[in-house]
């Protein structure tokens, strides 16, 4: 059997790692297509080295651009790539433009599509990721849901027959990475001198938070007013938007740092007193690491993190500051994202499922 994985952004590279390992263990031929959606080395190529993933078989080099230009360029390139390799399954990951482009290309060429992280819903159609998820789920032949909540969303949309709950592959790779970096030094402590559990780690990159001058300014000002150091990992989109809006880093407790490699990110997140983010993946990683999370968004697709008390949804301003300064919530033994063997289940499901 031949599986083609199509990836293009940092969260997808992380999810790809356990899938690649599971394919290798089962002697499944695995073709990796990198769209080039994330072109910064710290958000792209370095992950293949850090996570021991084979180099991509195909690299489209699409780069940044508007939704239409980026998705269109991917579609134009993917048709030929799919026909060249003719896989038994095309596996798409998450909710990016790479995901929806690969799903559309595959379904129109009549190749089976499986969607990893199917069924996630924020119910906010203003988020481009939400549109990508819904379109991809309705294109796909096999919906690999990470949780029972995700599966229930798909059932309500009439997609239950295509759905299999497999667990979350991020849990797999996070557990493996935690073992690998158990004795590694904390890059934040090394570079800033902050002790463990005295700082918060922040990431902000979504268009809803960065496209507006006023909103981004309020976020930066809020981060600077938190009563302990906040280290903001500056995603290229954020850096560009700060420059575009003519903003400066406000005085206070806000410190800027380049993006971290995934192993370093795990170390820094695990030893932080809190996470402040608008990233879906980092919300979940924070929960799995039992680091309190503050999410600068009105909704989240990872509702379990909020229901257990380990994640709080906030707006910029006093709510953000208060949430970032809150005490650690009560312990939880909840495991809504599986047992750390989701990738094995995914690959076995692809082997066992025939379409058409």
How would you sum up this structure in a few lines?
This protein is of the alpha/beta class and about 350 residues long. It is about 45% helix and about 15% strand.
Structure, described:
The protein is an alpha/beta fold and 356 residues long. 45% of the residues lie in helices and 15% in strands. It contains 16 helices and 13 strands. It has helices spanning 10-25, 45-50, 67-85, 97-108, 128-139, 148-156, 169-180, 187-192, 207-210, 213-225, 236-244, 262-270, 280-289, 303-307, 318-324, 342-352, and strands spanning 2-7, 29-34, 58-59, 89-93, 113-116, 142-145, 163-165, 200-203, 230-233, 254-257, 274-277, 293-295, 311-313. The protein has a seven-stranded parallel β-sheet with strand order 3-2-1-4-5-6-7, with helices on both faces. It has a six-stranded parallel β-sheet with strand order 10-9-8-11-12-13, with helices on both faces. Strand 11, helix 13 and strand 12 form a beta-alpha-beta unit. Helix 3 packs across helix 4 (97-108). The longest helix is centred in the first third of the chain and has 19 residues, at 67-85. The protein is globular, with a radius of gyration of 20 Å. The protein starts with a strand and ends with a helix.
DSSP helix fraction? 40-55%
Low-confidence stretches: none
Order of strands across the main sheet: 3-2-1-4-5-6-7
Oligomer: single chain
Features:
15% strand, six-stranded parallel sheet, alpha/beta, seven-stranded parallel sheet, 356 residues
